[in-house]
Amino acid sequence: MAYTTIKKPSDYFNTKLYTGNSGSGDNAVAVGFQPDFTWFKSRTQGYNNYLIDAIRGDEKYISSDNTNAEASWGANDVTWTPTGFTLNTTGGSGINEGGQGANNMVAWNWLANGAGSANTAGSINSTVSANTTSGFSIVKWTGTGSNATIGHGLGVAPRMIIMKNTSQTASWGVYHESMGNDKRMFLNTTDAESAGVWQNTSPTSTVFSVDGGTITGGSGHVEIAYCFADVQGFSKFGSYVGNGNADGTFVYTGFKPAFVMVKNVNSGAQGWLMFDDERSPFNVANKFMVANLSQAEASTSTHTMDFLSNGFKIRGTDGGVNGSGNTIIYMAFAEQPLVGDNPATAR
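Predicted structure:
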């Protein structure tokens, strides 16, 4: 049974819907904690995905749907607060546009451990903001152009790593344990899995391995990585095989999901699809965003899944969620654990 040390998952990960106001006064959004990693997306407009984190600072963003280097908003456009964040921007950046109706924006928020501290576990020193309880860390380092190991601070091996060269134009690199240490994915494209950049070496409880290429550690290039480990009853990173029909695979997670992202690793035509329980509060979950595209929220009968008390079941027939015979990787975070003080129930 999926007992967990995390009694309230929303203390560590929380999806928030909010309404933009185009800078008509401070727009305060309550998350329930001060985020260390926030991923913004307009639901109604074709703006980029914007990602900020506590190590780089709340004024610096990178976008999962392009290869651009890090860029900056104004100093006060986004400000984290002890309970969430405050926006004070006209909305041109796509995080606070008004006049688009209620809850036109979504922000996914993770708790790490503040601005970070020095980590010397790897061959290259890193700055790490790690939450060992929730299995999430933010890691920053400067590459040397050679093979290296990087300390991640989790105390257990991460099962998924998403990284970006923030100082250069470069694709995002994704490691996922289900693909193996000889494969990688690109978060900003639909590409299928390809040869890895991890020195054919799996992460350990202290470090992960990278080569000296542009994606993972070119000489003088500043890199950021978001590292995720399984935490029983809170987070899960794995894979399933699609069957192409509406009675799709059931994936056991040990919790009722709050957020699920999937990617078909065998197909070069399928994107990174993101579902959550706020935008789709009832089954079927049919409203999705695409991490590698700037498009607005979409909803179709072929890109669907049910969120259950102990996992999720695929209901759509599209190749992105259910390609027949294809391996599909996922990352999932809990709304409620299956077993605990407040056990999950079906919805």
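Summary: DSSP finds one helix and 28 strands in the chain.
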